[in-house]
């Protein structure tokens, strides 16, 4: 049931994005190549071979996009810094890019001038390509020190103004999709070992960066360092079945616990160690494919988060499913479970993203119980549409936001320590291996138009009302928000249709007319030659 009420005073409302997905300018002003530049430039890796080379042109539109943030009335903006934009090879001693540093300085200053708090992620997947080629990226322990150098540079250059730092955004996807399935950059398929090894190095790196901040910068800058972990909720198909309950527990521990458990409790989840260890032994391996932390490392890693960033999009039903002994092992077969969905769940966008708001409250309560009720910022939550035609009247996004934000309000009443919410995302943007086919934005972008204009969807107006009311005051008011949002989007639709027509006419003027003109001249010359020959 829906709960009417408001959030505590001082609750932070925001919106987010990431560097590679929005900035573009992939090789401009001294920026080095990232693994995503290399990955998208290979044919067949991304839907329609699309790239983020220009993306939303965010690099050139900072002022415009900050106006959108003001229009939304958000308290904070979560964005990421592109490592190769400020350190082209990823190695501090080799080269710094002052233009890149200036770009982020200008962005941070503009946000603060407009009373918007910057929340900054140091890593949203765009590793410098040089580090991938030279060392194998996150497969190599040397990344710990290279990343720590980069993080310290960011603390030095921006830490006087940035007080909320995220070391890694969704490291689960970095490890699993980058080094196991190969769906994401760098596109490696190191089945059974690659993801675990990458995650191991990422966790060690996170801890090193937290200690660097703690020892060197905290007393002066008074900021916070956390990590952003994205996890679905796993619900047992039959809550009365112990095997289903165990399978659902494994689902969460292999997803969220993989990273959160070492940081909050000092080691990988026991269930993860047992399952991967047993499967490794069945393969005849001498040691587990899941690496181990030494006692010293466990103590070093435990407690290295001032807050926990949580990304959450959807839920799965989970059932026990035993995978027979396989020579080819994988993260997925290690878990011995199957994921199911309820066909009645709304799925407005891609097949993976079902709207199941109640799963969010359960996930937040799980975190409270499992990790000692840490300070939580919701760092990513939103829904995409996967349609070819433009849809500015996004009532499904309104329903999704209303449902999921309401579950946070219920979780707060359960005693969960949530201090802020970040809707994902500000703009339609490049969605990794899906290209531009999925749209998460509050603002629609016409990517066919060279100016990449932004148009507000109905959800902009609705989210703005939630922020202004700091929640859901009463049924009548909340109902009115919906109708007002729908009215707004109808007007914007007319504007977009007009702009599209003008763009189309400009294309006709710039391309078709010169072509026709050239063709006329060519035909005239041919006819003239023909005429002169006949008369001679």
Automatic annotation (TrEMBL):
GO biological process: carbohydrate catabolic process
Catalytic activity field: Hydrolysis of terminal, non-reducing beta-D-glucosyl residues with release of beta-D-glucose; beta-D-glucosyl-(1<->1)-sphing-4-enine + H2O = sphing-4-enine + D-glucose; beta-D-glucosyl-(1<->1)-N-octadecanoylsphing-4-enine + H2O = N-octadecanoylsphing-4-enine + D-glucose; a beta-D-glucosyl-(1<->1')-N-acylsphing-4-enine + H2O = an N-acylsphing-4-enine + D-glucose
Keywords: Glycosidase, Hydrolase, Membrane, Transmembrane, Transmembrane helix
Protein EC: 3.2.1.21, 3.2.1.45, 3.2.1.46
Active site: 380
Transmembrane segments: 511-532
One function term, GO molecular function aspect: galactosylceramidase activity
Keyword Transmembrane recorded: yes
InterPro entries: GH (IPR017853), GH_1_N_CS (IPR033132), Glyco_hydro_1 (IPR001360), Glyco_hydro_1_AS (IPR018120)
Family matches, as Gene3D superfamilies: Glycosidases
Family note: Belongs to the glycosyl hydrolase 1 family. Klotho subfamily.
PANTHER family: GLYCOSYL HYDROLASE, LACTASE-LIKE PROTEIN
The protein, known as: Cytosolic beta-glucosidase
Organism this protein belongs to: Phaethon lepturus
């Amino acid at each position: 049931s829906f709960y009417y009420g408001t959030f505590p005073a001082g609750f932070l409302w925001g919106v987010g994005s990431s560097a590679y997905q929005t900035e573009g300018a992939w090789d401009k002003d001294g920026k080095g190549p990232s693994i995503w530049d290399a990955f998208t430039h290979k044919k067949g890796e991304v839907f329609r071979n699309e790239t983020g080379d220009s993306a939303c042109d965010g690099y050139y539109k900072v002022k415009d996009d900050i106006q959108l943030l003001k229009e939304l009335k958000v308290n904070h903006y979560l964005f990421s810094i592109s490592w190769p934009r400020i350190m082209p090879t990823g190695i501090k001693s080799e080269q710094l890019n002052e233009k890149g540093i200036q770009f982020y300085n200008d962005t941070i200053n503009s946000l603060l001038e407009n009373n918007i708090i910057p929340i900054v992620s140091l890593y949203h997947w765009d590793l410098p390509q040089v580090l991938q080629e030279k060392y194998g990226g996150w497969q190599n322990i040397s990344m710990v020190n290279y990343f720590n150098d980069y993080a310290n540079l960011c603390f030095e250059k921006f830490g006087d103004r940035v007080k909320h730092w995220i070391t890694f955004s969704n490291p689960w996807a970095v490890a699993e999709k980058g080094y196991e399935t190969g769906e994401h950059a760098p596109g490696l398929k190191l089945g059974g070992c690659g993801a675990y090894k990458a995650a191991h190095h990422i966790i060690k790196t996170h801890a090193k960066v937290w200690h660097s901040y703690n020892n060197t910068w905290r007393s002066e800058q008074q900021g916070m360092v956390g990590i952003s972990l994205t996890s679905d909720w796993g619900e047992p198909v039959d809550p009365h079945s112990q095997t289903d309950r165990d399978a659902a527990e494994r689902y969460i521990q292999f997803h969220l616990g993989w990273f959160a458990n070492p940081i909050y409790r000092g080691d990988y989840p026991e269930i993860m160690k047992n399952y991967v260890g047993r499967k490794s032994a069945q393969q005849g391996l001498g040691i587990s494919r899941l690496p181990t932390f030494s006692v010293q490392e466990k103590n070093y890693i435990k407690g290295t988060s001032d807050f926990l960033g949580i990304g959450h999009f959807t839920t799965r039903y989970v059932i026990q499913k035993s995978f027979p002994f396989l020579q080819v092992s994988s993260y997925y077969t290690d878990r011995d479970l199957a994921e199911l969905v309820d066909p009645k769940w709304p799925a407005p966008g891609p097949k993976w993203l079902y709207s199941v708001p109640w799963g969010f409250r359960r996930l937040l309560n799980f975190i409270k119980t499992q990790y000692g009720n840490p300070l939580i910022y919701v760092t990513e939550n939103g829904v995409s549409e996967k349609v070819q035609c433009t849809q500015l009247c996004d009532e499904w996004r309104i329903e999704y936001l209303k449902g999921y934000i309401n579950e946070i309000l219920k979780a707060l009443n359960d005693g969960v320590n949530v201090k802020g919410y970040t809707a994902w995302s500000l703009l339609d943007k490049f969605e990794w291996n899906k290209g531009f086919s999925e749209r998460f934005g509050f603002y629609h972008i016409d990517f066919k138009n060279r100016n990449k204009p932004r148009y507000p969807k109905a959800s902009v107006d609705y989210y703005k009302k939630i922020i202004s009311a700091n929640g859901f005051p009463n049924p009548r008011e909340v109902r009115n928000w919906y109708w007002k949002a729908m009215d707004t989007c109808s007007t914007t639709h007319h504007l977009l249709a007009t702009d599209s027509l003008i763009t189309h006419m400009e294309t006709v003027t710039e391309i078709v007319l010169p072509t026709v003109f050239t063709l006329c001249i060519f035909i005239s010359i041919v006819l003239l030659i023909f005429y002169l020959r006949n008369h001679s």
